[in-house]
Amino acid sequence: MPLVIFSGLPSSGKSTRARDLKQQLESKISSLEQGQPGANLKVILHTDESLGITKEEYRESRTEKSLRGLQMSAVKRDISRSNIVILDSPAYIKGFRYQLHCEAKALSTSCCVIHVLASLETCLNWNSERSKDDQWDPELLKQLSMRYEEPDGNSRWDSPLIPIAFDDVSIPFDDIWNTLVHQKAPQANAATMMKPATATNYLQELDKSTQFVINKVIEFEDLKTSRIKIDEDLFLDLPPQGVSNAKLQRIRRTFVTLNRVRSLDVDRIVPLFVDYLDSNINRDD
């Protein structure tokens, strides 16, 4: 059933709204009679706290990538036709929201984004009122504000978009319920539902995708940069001393050999190979 993505800066009141929505959804569902739309649905709320994610993990690119993987895994595990899954996270990268949209669409279920609107000044003020143990580092909060890619209702992965101002008295529950339960779910299509690859096509994709990553590394390494953008929301950090082409190709050959006998989903080859590279390029030869 539906996926609800909360998006907003830390200390904007986002988590309070997410908890409020969960309570109202559970109350609404319990009041329905058998056979009514939405009856017997289960509501699951995932937060950074419930997933064991700390505030400091948002500071570095390596830990930030891992925490998004953890959030994505939780959504993929629980999203189904019998659950309403609520993800309470900053969700400030549009590529991440697009991935979540694709997961919902692949199951032919609806997805909506709830954007909690609050200025950076408001968030900093509210953050200062938290207990010391629960506060965000103000500098980190400012960094997240600069990285924030606001949801756009004209983009299919951010639509339908439901904005809530930080000072709104209540959430627009009726609008949210109608969007989640009564609106027709988007149909899965070739863009979001991968077809199984044949054996021949898989080996071609494995070879092509891994070489694509190597080419990106070589291209950007010539520019003397330590952080390489491989794809949307996918980065690789190089060691200070760089890495030789010979070592890159050796790691690639090992990865290809290890994965020739099993068929990975085609859309997972690049991110898995980037993770494999990331864990091997710093090893001593």
UniProtKB/TrEMBL annotation:
Keywords: ATP-binding, Nucleotide-binding
Secretion signal span: none
InterPro entries, per database record: KTI12/PSTK (IPR013641), P-loop_NTPase (IPR027417)
Origin superkingdom: Eukaryota
Statement: the UniProt record of this protein carries the keyword Cell cycle: no
Pfam families: KTI12
ATP-binding found in the keyword field: yes
One GO term (biological process): tRNA modification
Any one GO molecular function term: ATP binding
Quaternary structure and partners: Interacts with the elongator complex.
Family membership: Belongs to the KTI12 family.
Protein name: Protein KTI12
